[in-house]
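User: I'm writing a tutorial on reading structure tokens. Could you give me a worked example: one chain, its sequence, then its tokens, then a sentence or two explaining what the tokens reveal?
Assistant: Sure. Here is the example chain.
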Amino acid sequence: MTDVVLQDPRPLLAVLVSFVAAILIVASYRSPNVREGWTLVASLAKFGIVASMLPAVLDGAVFEYSHGAFLPGIGTPIEFVLRADALGMLFAFLASGLWIVTSFYSIGYMRGLDEPNQTRYFAAFAVSLSTTMGIAFAGNLVTIFVFYELLSIATYPLVAHDETAEARSAGRKYLAYTMFGGGVLVLAGTALVYLLAGSVAFTPGGIAELANADPGLAMLAFLLLAVGFGVKAGIMPLHQWLPEAMVAPTPVSGLLHAVAVVKSGAFGVSRVVLDVFGPELVFDLSLPFGFTAGLVLSTIGAVTLTAASLIALRKDHLKRRLAYSTISQLSYIILGLGLFGWYGLVGALLHIPAHAFMKLTLFFCAGNIHAETHTDYISQMAGIGKRMPLTMGAFTVASLGMAGIPLLAGFVSKYYMLIGGVRMGAQLTPVAYYLVGALLLSGVLNIAYFWPVIYTAFFEAEDAHDAKPLVDFPLGGESRSIVAATDGRGAPDDVATDGRGAPDDAATDGGRAGDEDDESAGDADDLDDVIDDADAGDGGDSSPDAADGVDESEVPDADLDDLPTDEDGVVRPDFDTSERDFSEPAERVDTGDYAVDQKPSDADVPFGPGRADAPDEPSDDIAGADRAADETAADETAADRGDADAHVDDAHGDDAHDDHHHGGPPAGGWEHIASLDALRGRESTWFTLGPILTVMSLAVLLGVVPHDMGFLELIELIVDTRLPEEVMRP
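And here are its predicted structure tokens:
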């Protein structure tokens, strides 16, 4: 089929509409309703522009807009060109449609938590979708590189939205990996392709001149481009930015993991395989021991999806478990793109929308749980299914789809890839059977790390909850560490000076809030003793000792006598666990290395609900003990005047919902909400429930009628025009 090129400005309009909306959003910062109205109008307009091109693209047309040459070249100049072909439409149609759903969810989530800097959030979100459209419609490697880098810049404010030290660190790591790491590799690969072929334009089936180029240099260019784009797709060992980015608000996590960022990486690898080198050349480029470029790519995907699934088993923090699940699931796409054949490529491309629908559902559910109950840890979710039946029901459906259960989106894409691997192993190379084994193993691991969440939510009661993880040995870690209560980093004076530590952090070094009531009460008493001792010693005046809250030498004898100490009174970890009853969970202490992560993802917002209204905010130069005491007094004052927004716990902000707690079931257990009551809006706002059920329904429909949804038809057109005739559709 020969593409019919139509000169049309609609690809450019799809890029610009949300950029213009970002300007209007900033201009409307004084009126939240108008500001968010612009967001919804822009999302609907963008989707309408993209959808208007879909029928013609399915008939073989290509919409093109060229701004002319903007870089000189050795031969022909390099143009800034936007092309809406079948492959670009797959990504653009998906991203623009999901932006509508995510916009509604963002309104409910950001308002529900009274998040700060909402204008900046919605503006950055709009700019991110502009750059995503640019990646989808880029007509050559230079254009996609420009938008690839702009996407990193546009999403940085979203990753660092909370403005905490942890958020800024995650943002810097995100830029270091995706912009200065992946972007540099993409630029180097682009330059090498231009030197070898004299062209960087995307050509269905690959640039012909590359087939005649030096094989070693061609292989180098392929690896530079594949790894450069793969950084955003989270391939190992270049994946560390992705779990760290979970510090962002949950809608941002959905953007990062399902809509724009990681999908742009997977889409970039797709462009390299299908439109720069072509599937045939990728299979023919050989390395020693019979490994072709395609098999190298698939092996990277197989190793990543297996390792990420194993790591997900040990994560107790729900969003971090989902983050490693994303790393695993994106590697299915990378693996499938390396399978030479019709089935493998169709399965890889179909997993782009399948993963988007399922993973966005999962992140929306995690965000809804956090917004309503401030619960982030799986070990605190026993029985939460009766409190949030619709949310956890949607989570269950999406989890089953991720594991590849039939009649859901994940099954269809994985089935195509399995058939592609078997056919490649039987007809071309037996090494492909290893890839089939990795796919099957990963499916089992998907069940292993999603089932505990479902079981905990629906089949465990709060009072009979077993907090042990699925894997109770070093590979999986323990949700409650056997390490002594302090490891040399978390002395009690850190709590007084940190300004964000919750009372239950006194005996640890930043562990999560929401421990058992008896532990929290004991730690709070310890903190009060520390503050009282500091005040008694210096009369409340600042001094070098008071600046640190309390003299460290006094801590073991004054407040931590229950900890093992040596003859000098210094706390020493007791590693003798011979008397431990292993039927009971060990005392939990944050180590940062096991299932317990250091802080909840998007709860540690120092600018949380009511923060600005809290009276007499202490300045930075107040001593640690005095600062903690002043904040406690301020909280009591606000509580006395009935201020519902008073900040009780700086780590989370006050919970204005009916549960009035921070993580885990409240004192009386979860409130039981029947399904009909949940549908009437008792579970949470419909601004969040509506998007959850919508995206879940799309995941079901893609599994039941994939061709009728348009995605499979579009993907078949893409693959048919990229493969040589001898390996066309069976």
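What the tokens reveal: The radius of gyration is 27 Å. DSSP finds 26 helices and three strands in the chain.
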